[in-house]
Records
---
Amino acid sequence: MTDRVRIAIVGSGPAGLSAAGRAAALGISHVLLEKEDHLCDTIFRYQKGKHVMATPTALVLRSDLEFDAGKREPILEIWDRQALDAGIAVRCNANVTAITGEAGDFTIALADGETIRAESVILAIGTQGNPNVLRCPGGDLPHVQYQLDDPGEYIDEHITVIGSGDAGIENALGLAADPAQRNVVTILNRGADFARAKAANVKLLQESAGSGRITIRTDTSPAEVRPGELVLDTRDGQEVIRCDRIIARMGSTAPRKFIESCGIAFTSQDPGAFPVLSPVFETTRPGIHVIGALAGYPLIKHCMNQGYDAVEFLNGNTTLRPADEPILAELFASLPGGRSVDEWLALLAANVEIFRDLSVLQLREYLIDSEVRAYRAGETIFERNAYGSSLMAIALGSVAVEVDPQKPERTVAIEQGWIFGEIGLISGRRRGATVRAAEPAIIVELSRTAALKLLATSPGASRVVTRISIERQLLQIFGSGLTAQDIAELVTGAEVQEKRAGEVVLTEGDAGRDIYVIRRGSMIVEKTIGGKPVFLSYLPAGAYVGEMALIDGSPRSATVKAAIKSEVIRLDGEAFVRLLASKPELLQKARADMAARRETNAFIESRKDTFSDVVDMYSSTARFLIDNGIGEATDVLLIDENLCVGCDNCEKACADSHDGLSRLDREAGRTYASLHVPTSCRHCEHPHCMADCPPDAIRRGPDGEVSIDDSCIGCGNCERNCPYDVIRMDSVPPEKPGLLSWMFLGRGPGPGEPDKRWRKNHAPAGAEAPKIAIKCDMCAGIDGGPACVRACPTGAAIRVAPEDFLSVSKLEDDA
């Protein structure tokens, strides 16, 4: 038996159900095909009792079915009832195996042998049936699962959730919701930001972590699954935790083989790519339309709107505009040229490199969280040292980057289609240069949240940003008058590699031709002397290694390995040789760097007998510092206990400089020999504290100092994210009054009065002073530099960059 309908809708999730509801309301013959025995398997498979969000709140819902935020069960009940009342033609247990034919006459084959003929087809099948699986040793063990139906089933277990999207966060929250279940819940996030998740979910997760119900492990990934245990790759090396159950929620991919068998093309070969779609959701196979998560729009409101719109388009409604049209029209309203929303979207998709792989639907979504502005020629886009973590893309025109603050006329051009501001996005540092419009320009500014989500979900955009950041980092490191054209071959062949803590990049004695640039993290250099590894030096991000073997053809002279979880850029050695041959200045610089390293090696060799004890002590001290987090520091406070007299002047000076609240705990921390690492901020190269700051209150200064401004709301996320316990939440001290106000009106603490004690004695009964995050800011803005160092009477306290302290040159100075 073969049925014939105008529209066949495959998949009864929110998108497909809404499409069927619209077809029923318009009296269009249709069938809604669902392979399961129930409607809306997308929501049905949510965990029991899950709260379903209705975001974005500003978006109007278009659908013949109701939807508002609420629990999973009532939403499903409402949709079941409304589908029945609306007369939607549903066929459950209808698994589609093939779609053949052409627009106006498609044949849909089902697994039970039946066929359905349709004039048009709407695919709303989603992606959740194809979860990404755990790919590490032991990933196929029976206690690894990819679905959580009822969190209440699990009692007194150590459960690890892998995945930091909405599904992973919601699973972790469900498992930890009831303290009576006594579950120990840990969630792993490969990065530092929860870029894929809704802000509300991230907030709930952080609150649960703050109350001790969930442990968040950032910069952590699974290395091996064992019965009852999970081996983790962390920023500081491998760690084993107890684990009775793993719930892996690492996203999913489209059922590409089936979709391509229908004659539908994707935007690229990347596993995360989506089908090519027209503005009316039509694919490259005329007559077949794609909506919902398969179109790159996973939010329920978006999906339901698409279902409604797709049927309207198929019914001949040519005037219908998308529900987000008013939002985008307002976004583009102030721009010159009088273009429509569609025209602006087409221009952005064609001109901006990071948007090339996005569908129109995805582009609309990202632009809702962005700003688009017009700039006059010469107008400043941002100033050097300004705060900012957004990403800029040039839609029209070009910009000029001032490379020398003393000579504003010296600029480097960035042309139409490319990006800038990626350093602020990646590292959180202040803007490194002043950027002005070189001509009338249209600039898209993606918020940090939107930019991180774009990079996490669009492989094409991620590749573009990676390529540009590599190019600019190489130009900065190698200098010597190089241009982007000079290093194009190097950049094209470059490969970004992630290295876990302790992983070897170069091995002493090996033959090798490639060069490695440290993109993120840090490295330590060791040389085997007398059968023992001797610490030579510490290399921060921005350094490069491997040139010695390349230039003179000798074996690797030392072993280089990651001090912490790091990223390196592997550069093809032969391409680098060709670059050196064409650029004598670069060759001269490389030879100078090589000579300095050879001097270090020669010094160690010459002293290996005379100063063997000194070398051993230095190596042990260096490893102690690396083990205590110095590997990711940019500025660290160290105390020589041979000189320290315990006067606590350092702590008192810190308190005097910060309204009575010291940022330093001198006695806390670890000691090796006479070297003490107190509890004080290390000002990490990639600060963990910045990962989830809702008001974006944590910034990096021009000298690398990490500070917290007055917009802090006291959420405590930074305190929980800091692995070194150098941030605490403390009450806000009262503002110091003027001398006359204190003398005659008794306002506020006076000279010599501790601010916190004054607040405690004068606060209204029962009132709790608001708390904010307190941490070292390196006394930014205070003349003379860090007060702790200035106040030390014996010189025991020093603040240094690790690369300056962890160097064999210190031994040379001592010798």
---
Amino acid sequence: MRYGHFDDDQREYVIGQPDTPLPWINYLGTDAYFGIVSNTGGGYSFYRDARLRRLTRYRYNNAPLDVGGRYVYVRDDATGDYWSPSWQPTPERELDDYECRHGLSYTRIASARGGIRAETLYFAPLGETLEVWRVRVTNDRDSAAELSLFSSIEFCLWDAQDDATNYQRNFSTGQVEVVDGVIYHKTEYRERRDHFAYFACSEPLAGFDTQREAFLGAYRGWDRPAAVERGAASDSIAHGWQPIGSHHVRLTLAPGETREVNFLLGYAENPRDDKFDPPGSQTLNKTRVRPVIERWLRPETVEKGYADLRAYWDALLGGLRVRTPDQDTDRMVNVWNAYQCLVTFNMSRSASGYESGIGRGMGFRDSNQDLLGFVHMVPERARERILDIAATQKPTGGAYHQYQPLTKRGNNDIGEGFNDDPLWLILGVAAYLKETGDLALLDVPVPFDNEPGSEVPLYEHLRRSLRYTLERLGPHGLPLIGRADWNDCLNLNCFSDTPGEPFQTTENASGGVAESVFIAGQFVLAAKELAGIARLLERDGEEVFYRAAAEKMAGSIAEHGWDGAWFRRAYDFYGNVIGSGENDEGQIFIEPQGMCILGGVGIEDGLAQRALDSVAERLATPHGIVLQQPAYSSYRIELGEISSYPPGYKENAGIFCHTNPWIMIAEAIVGNGDRAFDYYRRLNPSAREEISEVHRCEPYVYAQMIAGKDAPTHGEAKNSWLSGTAAWNFVAITQWILGVRPDFDGLRIDPVLPADWPGFEVTRSFRGATYEITVRRAEGATSRVTEVLVDGVPVPGNLVPAAAPGTTVRVEAVIG
């Protein structure tokens, strides 16, 4: 069943009933100020870092699941009846109608009750560190209405980890100040007042509250606040305990009249110096921020800010537009998949409905992969991110698995030892160079571990990334896995010297001999990409070396990584093979089947096709391709966390959606267009909209995981939004199935289509030029592109050279 529908013209997903299976969320903000907002007004806001600069409080894993957010209450002062336009937090008060429209970096929620209609538009303006709530209240009655409007947010005491745990301190530190109706949250963070939040309203106030208990009342929740129930705020000032922000506005509306009330939630900083800020610095900065508040409380500023935001997305999405025979493909490529790629680029894996924003920062591996789906939209931001990531790399070529976005320092509690991490930097940089041709990036000095004085050109970071793998090879000539490879839960250096005794773990490459066939395939791909970069730099000797290293690793895979019908997964600490017919469980894994073929292993000798046939036979389900089979039925200490999950969930034979596009790409590489596109549609959120009661997550974005065939809830999604699934699916459909693929020397046109497609059209910006591409299939043709015309002139092969910036190039490609 459906809970809403796509409005393709407006680029919105319209939710028609509030009780979706799970909270269906959206993201506010595009650069530094961000927020999560659900279809019922839940969520929170932060500046740059979801842990260290959290503005508002949110409680994960609550009951109901989505509690706490940006709530507005409407009260009929004549009857005392009140309700929330977002349904939550007053779900027992029945609405006459309800609609939520999630758009690109904005959400609009509207509902009606008793002849009063209210609509709230939430968005974060471009270039500002604030969010706007534009509330429009309409009186649809035949008589005048006396109404009260209450806003509400709960302030977080900045460090979300400390906020959720250190109550003996926090209950004594909450501080607010109210000046001219603006509520300032100025709770000290680690004894330094260098930033504060503010909550403002465009209308004169009838009252306000800043103490949670004064607003809600003792032993009450957000569903029945005492202040709203009695129709009057108490002008409370928080001293410790739980600071909040709430404005009370009285409105008199004539029949048919609409009134607009704007609320602002924002972040500001004081000037930094070498000493604690002197008394009064808060007041000075409030004076400085006041013009910003006054400007954004004006209706005309809000309207323009909203229009500018939509124009921003027009420009971003205009760089790649497709017209195919499949509506779900067009919808995802042109709007929702691209949008998810931007959000995931901004957030990495740090803040969603499933990540609290506390435990994870920016992932080294994650962020490099996210570049793949984002670089064509805003390459300058991709460039900046590459330099940030590389600066966290260690001199060995190893990498911190994660880093904090605010400090850009490696996250020591995660550390290094995920031995696939360094190779992703090569793949991320290669994608950027193919898109932009910006070879100057390779000469930019970048430090190691952000240590001053350690700067070397970025190209040297890439060389050390490859060397990191070459210096850590196991007895089969395959890369050591370290703490884990892409699969964080496959921990093959876990072991126990004595049965029944606690396990030990070696978290670095030097302490264990477990080897990864997956990293071997990734190494082949990365070495070939680095060879391509060396060619551009005219470093002929290095190019030869990298290609030889790739060939040698491919030989090790053929000798020790092939199991007869598929690629093996790994060797564990004891030297036992993983992902083999020799195993009773976990005989075949998806990851090496995809990554080895992406690296070109097994193409010419037919191993790739045999491996993909095994995937189709043993791993494919109607809801996607599971990670491995058979599932592990019990915990196995020598495998680590993977076997701690029940069968069919997450890494234990779940459909880990991130890996599915690797198989789509592999099928395209060997020329299987029907199978590649079939796998694509199985995961496509728009194509799964009809089964929302099964899928449960949002039907407009990809999820990280779908329960596998061994699970009782096969087809149920979890961990939506922030996933490498977004970037890889975008790459699979646009660059390999549709086949419009940036290369070092131009734009390659190499589609591998389903047999029933007559063709398609693409408009794509590439290095400043616009390419209008038409692909058509000759009648009865089943092969790949056999003819390419550029502005009517045939070109050899399928590579279209880069054109001069500002020009428009017309490309015709024929599948012969």
